[in-house]
């Protein structure tokens, strides 16, 4: 039998591990919903580097295909649903869905349907919320948040990186630059076209540096979808064909692969979260109706991330010291890729 001192040591270690896991998991509120701010407001954030040193950039690009169905067979046959699946072009592979729909653009009568099934891009960043106009109530303990950025905003981010006047990496701890999400109105839709980088550089303050030291940076790949295997890719193509034909989503055929977010499939629901593409969360988080109808900036992606699939216990920790990335090298790399 263990001694009292050994028992106390083990209990203390368990408490510390539980606390660490709770801090790193952060929950669904780790995503900062800047789109919930009122029109004519500005949210200021500071992007941070990716903990993955193999990632040339400080973001990850996600490509998602949306498959609409008029209902769910045997459950809700008159309630339209959309199944979201990863596009394998994210990994440099040929996507069978896009191979099918690319020729559709040659026929004007097919363009609208082709666009409906064309992949949607979004970009994952992480960083601090410097100025929050949303009056957010349920802030996570870990202040390092995730940001889902639309192509409209990403174009602005990328454009500034290509500007020779930006001499330092914006994620640099000492000479970095904050970014401002500015929400305006364009007709009935929200518009972020005037968002921009701050004019002045800013060094991270002591609180921000301490947070990086305590919690560590996230590996953004943990929040990317798992690459479909051959069986899952076949299911994606089956669902695509069924969607185009106007068929109902059939949970008996596809629930073990991909399924509608936040819908109770009853007996067809996978029995274990170990399935290759289960819901990232069992409870759908509330999102404000204020978000732009044309933007896909929520994070309700109904399949497991790489972190969930691999069951990673924690994201890699990072030192509060200056990142090893060389700003001039990375900026030059981005500009070279654009030139190519």
Tell me about this structure.
The protein has 340 residues and is α+β, with helices and mostly antiparallel strands. It has one domain: Replication Fork Single-Stranded Dna Binding Protein (Replication Fork Single-Stranded DNA Binding Protein, Alpha-Beta Complex). Helix content is 27%, strand content 18%. The protein contains nine helices and eight strands. Strands 1, 2, 3, 4, 5, 6, 7 and 8 form an eight-stranded antiparallel β-sheet that branches. Strand 6 (176-186) and strand 7 (189-191) form a beta hairpin. Mean pLDDT is 79; it is low at 20-27, 272-296 and 317-325.
Could you tell me the number of beta strands? 8
Helix/strand class: alpha+beta
Low-pLDDT windows of residues: 20-27, 272-296, 317-325
- How many individual domains? 1
Helical segment tally?
Answer: 9
Shape: globular
Helix-strand sequence: HEEEHHEEHEEEHHHHH
User: Which superfamily, in CATH terms, is the homologous superfamily?
Assistant: Replication Fork Single-Stranded Dna Binding Protein
Cα gyration radius (Å): 22 Å
In whole angstroms, the N-to-C terminal distance is 67 Å
CATH architecture: Alpha-Beta Complex
The top-level CATH class is Alpha Beta
CATH topology: Replication Fork Single-Stranded DNA Binding Protein
**Major beta sheet summary:** 8 strands, antiparallel
Strand content: 15-25%
- Name the average pLDDT: 79
Helix content: 25-40%
């Amino acid at each position: 039998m263990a001694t009292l001192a050994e028992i106390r040591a083990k209990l203390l270690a368990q408490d510390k591990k539980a606390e660490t896991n709770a801090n790193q998991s952060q929950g669904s509120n780790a995503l900062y919903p800047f789109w919930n701010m009122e029109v004519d407001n500005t949210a200021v954030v500071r992007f941070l580097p990716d903990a993955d040193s193999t990632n040339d950039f400080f973001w990850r690009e996600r490509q998602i295909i949306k498959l609409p169905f008029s209902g769910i067979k045997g459950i809700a046959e008159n309630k339209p649903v959309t199944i979201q699946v990863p596009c394998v072009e994210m990994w440099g592979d040929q996507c069978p869905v896009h191979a099918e729909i690319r020729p559709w653009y040659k026929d004007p009568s097919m363009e609208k349907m082709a666009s409906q099934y064309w992949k949607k891009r979004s970009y994952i960043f992480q960083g601090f919320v410097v100025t929050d106009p949303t009056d957010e109530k349920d802030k996570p303990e870990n202040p390092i948040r995730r940001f889902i950025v639309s192509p409209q905003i990403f174009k602005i981010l990328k454009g500034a990186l290509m500007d020779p006047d930006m001499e330092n990496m914006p994620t640099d701890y000492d000479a970095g630059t904050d970014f401002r999400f500015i929400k305006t109105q364009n007709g009935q839709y929200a518009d972020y076209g005037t968002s921009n980088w701050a004019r002045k550089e800013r060094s991270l303050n002591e609180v921000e540096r301490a947070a990086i030291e305590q919690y560590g940076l996230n590996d953004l790949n943990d929040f990317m979808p798992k690459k479909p295997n051959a069986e899952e890719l076949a299911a994606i193509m089956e669902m695509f064909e069924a969607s185009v034909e106007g068929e109902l989503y059939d949970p008996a055929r596809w629930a073990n692969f991909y399924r509608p977010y936040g819908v109770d499939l009853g007996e067809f629901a996978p029995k274990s979260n170990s399935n290759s593409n289960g819901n990232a969360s069992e409870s759908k988080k509330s999102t404000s109706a204020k978000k732009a109808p044309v933007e896909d900036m929520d994070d309700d992606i109904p399949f497991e991330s790489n972190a969930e699939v691999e069951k990673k216990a924690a994201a890699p920790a990072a030192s509060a010291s200056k990142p090893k990335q060389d700003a001039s090298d990375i900026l030059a790399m981005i500009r070279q890729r654009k030139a190519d």
